[in-house]
Design goal:
With 538 residues, this protein is α/β, with parallel strands linked by helices. It has 23 helices and 18 strands. The relative contact order is 0.11.
């Protein structure tokens, strides 16, 4: 078996059905092995390595399964580095497969094609785990370890590299048996009891969920109902408790309850709202944190740390709190949500445009955000009803991630609606992959909010630097003509109602679409007072 075959056969053992990537001379042997799988593995080849990485990220973020991409070494790996760092930061299982210079030139520094001073060291700064496969026979074990590392503990990006010559080299290879699902990490009984004691005595508990809780939605809701504790999410945890449930709160509504919170329970969350965004930590606040990553206890220093799988720990807390009875808070919280909903309407025009999108998008459809004014507003102004349906880039904040990520989401979910919202600046980072959407029939509807600027940069320069603006104002193409040049239907929507109708047509069509929404930057109301609120904003 060749090195390429050994990798591909191990991918099949791990249930991989899609690989995103660009072939190049160092990886011909890998792509030939992929070609010989027939229809068992779909290979989607975008127009840029960064898109390949982000498509794998979107696939993984929306499914929970590892997303796999393959690129050439050196420039190819570096082009995809933003996607690797996003996957690492957003705790998402992405597997990068790349090449290397020929074995005899490893470490020689002679300047072979695409050679980096130490590619493996570079990969290790961007991933949870990385390794070099030096023989075909070594491939199955190392690829299997890559998947184990990506999926166990805190899910994150991993990488394997193989020298150019090894992809085509032949030797006997023994494939391992199919992998068993990793066991859930169970919580310590003492930690559960200590947490339960705090929660029993809490008068105004608050639950904060992040991306680590997406597989624990039923357990989180059961605990929230038991304690009558509101559940607040920011980005990755959106939809763990549906926004149309009385206990499911956005960060805006959650902030109103922050001053009176006496016990904060974090589940699968970095507690970004509490540590970075919300001021004035309540006096006497006690913190319980559930996280599968033991390092989070050191970073966050909670009063009680539970290192365990989110679902297992939350089930244990429900059992430990059996018999607790609390007065229902549904009416109180519904009134709070309605009040804050009315406040959010002031974020014009984006709150109204997001409401139009929500109206047209099916309940199980996906929204992929982006670093733009509409994207920032979507953290609190776009209702989310189920885990994984709000796809975010997390704290890395990589401009331009949204459109290519949405392509990966749609490949993973061809029968569900996928909408990408993006600014004009971020969209042009990857707009060439409209070609990929058209060629592969990837039916993402891309909504480009065109304010002719990097909106945040423009506002900050005007506000902080006496109006001196540099590099923030953009000259854009005709987005409708750009889409047409790729054979993709497009429309312009000037009002929320026009956007709702255009999005309905696009989703009914089923293919890739682009909708441009012109926005006057001087008329945009900043979402940041809601994202970085002042003490006790009323």
């Amino acid at each position: 078996m060749s090195g390429g075959d050994a990798i591909v056969q191990t991918l099949l053992l791990h249930g991989v059905d899609t690989v995103f990537g660009l072939p190049g001379v160092q990886t011909y042997g890998l792509f030939d092995a992929l070609a010989r799988t027939g229809s068992r593995i779909r290979v989607v080849c975008p127009r840029h390595e960064q898109t390949a990485g982000y498509m794998a990220y979107g696939y993984a973020k929306s499914t929970g399964r590892a997303g796999v991409y393959a690129v050439v070494p050196g420039a190819g790996v570096l082009n995809s580095a933003a996607a690797l760092s996003t996957a690492y930061g957003a705790s998402t299982p992405v597997v990068c497969v790349t090449g290397q210079v020929p074995s005899r030139f490893l470490g020689s520094g002679k300047g072979h094609l695409h050679e980096l001073p130490d590619q493996l060291a570079t990969l290790r700064t961007l991933t949870k785990w990385a390794a070099r496969i030096e023989t075909p026979a070594a491939a199955p074990a190392l690829v299997a370890e890559a998947f184990r590392q990506a999926a166990t503990g805190r899910p994150r990006a991993v990488a394997v590299e193989m020298p150019w010559d090894v992809f085509d080299a032949q030797e006997p290879v023994e494939l391992p048996p199919p992998p068993a699902p990793p066991p859930a990490l169970e919580p310590d009984a003492g930690a559960i009891e200590a947490a339960a004691e705090l929660l029993r005595g809490a008068r105004r508990p608050l639950i904060m969920v992040g991306g680590g809780a997406v597989e624990a939605a039923a357990e989180v809701l059961a605990l929230a109902e038991l304690l009558q504790a509101p559940v607040v999410s920011f980005r990755g945890g959106r939809g763990v408790v549906s926004d149309d449930h009385p206990l499911g709160l956005t960060c805006v509504a959650g902030f109103e309850l922050w001053p009176e919170t006496d016990v904060l329970l974090g589940i699968g969350s970095r507690l970004e709202l509490a540590w970075f965004r919300w001021p004035d930590r309540p006096a006497g606040l006690r913190v319980v944190n559930v996280d599968v990553d033991p390092l989070q206890a050191e970073r966050l220093q909670p009063d009680v740390a539970i290192t365990a799988d989110a679902a297992a720990a939350t089930r244990a807390l429900v059992a430990a709190l059996e018999g607790v009875e609390r007065e229902p808070r549904h009416a109180e919280l519904r009134a709070l949500k309605e009040r804050t909903r009315q406040e959010i309407e002031a974020v014009r025009p984006h709150a109204a445009f997001l409401a139009a999108i929500r109206e047209a998008l099916p309940r199980d459809g996906f929204l992929v955000e982006e670093l733009c004014q509409a994207g920032f507003a979507s953290y609190f102004a776009f209702p989310v009803y189920a885990p994984r349906t709000f796809v975010t880039g997390g704290h890395q904040g990589a401009l331009g991630f949204g459109f290519p990520t949405a392509l990966g989401v749609k490949v993973a979910h061809p029968d569900r609606a996928v909408v990408s919202i993006t600014g004009d600046g971020g969209f042009l980072f990857g707009a060439t992959d409209l070609a990929t959407a058209g060629q592969e029939g990837i039916g993402v509807v891309t909504i480009v909010f065109d304010n002719g600027a990097y909106g945040n940069v423009l506002r900050d320069q005007q506000r902080l630097y006496d109006g001196r603006v540099l590099g923030a104002v953009l000259r854009n193409p005709d987005f409708l003509a750009l889409a047409a040049s790729f054979g993709i239907p497009a429309a312009r929507a000037d009002t929320p109602d026009e956007l709702r109708r255009a999005l309905g047509r696009a989703l009914a069509d089923g293919g890739p679409w682009l909708i441009e929404v012109p926005v006057d930057p001087s008329q945009e109301v900043s979402p940041w007072p809601f994202l970085m609120p002042r003490p006790r904003r009323r």
